[in-house]
Design goal:
Blueprint (H helix, E strand, L loop, with lengths): L1 E8 L4 E8 L4 E5 L5 H10 L3 E6 L5 H4 L2 H8 L3 E2 L6 H5 L1 H7 L19 E4 L2 E7 L8 E5 L4 E5 L2 E2 L2 E2 L9 H12 L7 E4 L5 E2 H7 L9
Parallel strand pairs: 3-4, 4-5, 9-12
Antiparallel strand pairs: 1-2, 2-3, 6-7, 7-8, 8-9, 10-11, 12-13
Length: 214
């Protein structure tokens, strides 16, 4: 069974998630934006075997620690979609803009596309390409655990910004309604910032994407 631990990192309180297979203790880390010592300690404390970095998108608070962590631990970088190459190339500029530690560009070992899967131990997660916040944003969904790691696509009562380069409001709305909602109302989502929620509750209450006939 898939288990996870979410740890806020960086001054932006970005939700980095460590996910692992309880049968094998093999783990992946989603969006290690920074505070790497805190993250590696949490992994060591649980005796997990970290095998990969999974990336939802390449904004600095999500991707700022990727190159350093991958280099130190010889980890493959999985994701995001190639549409975020622009943001990866600009990581150093993003670091300076937001006063983050200098982050270097990197080349993912594997770009992801809609319909892909990723695996950790005996747990398989589905990949959905959900552009709108960034062009290459992806989401990781575990049907067995009824959990979705959605980055900055959706928040409780809100949704991702679309005013950065490559963002598009209508595209983000389409991603949420046509790629997240089919995962099921009971699915719990782990957003890039803030508390967890369920897709059903957001369909009922979120002012940006609620279904008026729900």
């Amino acid at each position: 069974m898939l288990q996870y631990l979410t740890i806020p990192v960086t001054p932006f309180a970005q939700n980095c998630s460590i996910v692992w297979c309880s049968e094998t203790n093999k783990a992946a880390i989603i969006d290690p934006g920074g505070d790497l010592e805190k993250l590696t300690k949490a992994i060591a404390d649980r005796n997990l075997q970290l095998e990969a970095i999974w990336l939802t998108h390449a904004h600095i608070d999500h991707a700022g620690g990727v190159a350093e962590l991958a280099s130190k631990l010889n980890l493959p970088i999985i994701g995001p979609h190639v549409g975020d190459q622009f943001w990866i190339d600009r990581l150093a500029d993003q670091s300076r803009m937001f006063n983050f530690p200098l982050s270097k560009p990197f080349t993912p070992n594997r770009w992801l596309v809609d319909g892909d899967t990723v695996q950790i131990g005996n747990s398989t997660l589905n990949v959905r390409h959900c552009p709108g916040h960034t062009p290459g944003h992806v989401v990781f969904h575990s049907p067995e655990a009824q959990r979705a790691f959605v980055g900055d696509v959706l928040f409780v009562g809100s949704m991702g910004r679309t005013d950065f380069p490559g963002g598009d409001h209508d595209t983000l709305i389409d991603s949420i309604r046509n790629r997240l909602w089919p995962m099921g109302n009971e699915t719990v989502f782990i957003p890039g910032h803030g508390p967890e929620g369920s897709f059903g509750e957001e369909r009922r209450r979120n002012p940006y994407v609620r279904d008026l006939q729900f």
